[in-house]
Design a protein that fits this description.
Strand content: 5-15%
Number of helices: 10
Oligomer: single chain
Largest sheet: 4 strands, parallel
Structural class: alpha/beta
Helix content: 40-55%
Length: 208
C-alpha cells in the first residue's frame, strides 16, 4: 500500500497540489502537517511513519516536505528500510529517490554517504570551535552553577564548622560532587558530620 505524507509551513498555504500528486501516485492513506520543517513533534509525519508496514511505500511530494536536513532524511529512510518499507519522492531534486527500485536505492546510497560526511564535518567544526574558545579562555559548555562567590561562601561555612560539604552544597543549590571537585576534596566519607567533627588524631586513625 502507498501511504502519503504532505506538509505546508503555515495555515495560509494550501495542501491541494501535494494531495493531488499523491493521489495520482496511488496513495490510499495520506497524513498531513501544517508546521515548519524545523519544528519537532510533527504529528502527521509520526502517524505516517507508524502506519507504514512491511511492503508499504511512503510517498512524499518533495524531499524538503519530509526531512529537515540530509542527515534527517537518511535516518528516516534507514528506519523505513529496516522495517521493509519503501520510500518514493515524486518531484524536485530528490525525484530520483525511489528505494523500491535498484537505481533509486543507488541514489539514496549516495545521499547516505553525503549525510555521513555532513555529520562528520559538523562534528569537526564543533570540536575546533570548542578548542578555539578554550584557547581564548572562554568557558565551554553549560554555565557553571558554582560561582566564585558561592565557592568562597562554601569555604567559609566549612571552615567555621557551620556546615559540612554536603550541607554547604545544599544551601547553595549545587550538587555536592560539584562542590567537592571545586575544593579538590576527598570522597564522600570526608563529608560525614561525625567524621568532620572528630578530633584530627581520630580521623587520622591514631589509637590510644
Amino acid at each position: 500500500m502507498n501511504i502519503g505524507y504532505v506538509r505546508v509551513s503555515t495555515d495560509d498555504q494550501s495542501l491541494a497540489l501535494q494531495l493531488d500528486a499523491l493521489r495520482a501516485a496511488g496513495c490510499e492513506v495520506i497524513h498531513e502537517d501544517k508546521a515548519s520543517g524545523v519544528l519537532n513533534g510533527r504529528k502527521g509525519l509520526a502517524q505516517a511513519l507508524k502506519g507504514c508496514a512491511a511492503g508499504d511505500v511512503l510517498v512524499v511530494w518533495k524531499l524538503d516536505r519530509l526531512a529537515r536536513s540530509l542527515h534527517d532524511l537518511v535516518v528516516i529512510a534507514a528506519d523505513l528500510k529496516g522495517r521493509g518499507v519503501g520510500l518514493k519522492i515524486l518531484t524536485g531534486e530528490g525525484a530520483a529517490v525511489d528505494t523500491t527500485h535498484s537505481q533509486g536505492r543507488m541514489i539514496f546510497g549516495i545521499l547516505a554517504v553525503m549525510a555521513e560526511f555532513e555529520r562528520e564535518m559538523i562534528s569537526e567544526r564543533t570540536i575546533a570551535g570548542m578548542k578555539a574558545a578554550k584557547r581564548r579562555g572562554r568557558h565551554v559548555g553549560r554555565p557553571s552553577k558554582l560561582t566564585d562567590h558561592k565557592l568562597d561562601h562554601a569555604r567559609q561555612l566549612i571552615a567555621d564548622g557551620a556546615e559540612n560539604r554536603a550541607g554547604a552544597a545544599a544551601l547553595l543549590g549545587i550538587h555536592v560532587k560539584t562542590l567537592r571537585r571545586a575544593l579538590n576534596g576527598p570522597d564522600d566519607l570526608a563529608d560525614s558530620p561525625a567524621r568532620e567533627n572528630r578530633p584530627a588524631s581520630v580521623r587520622a586513625g591514631k589509637r590510644g
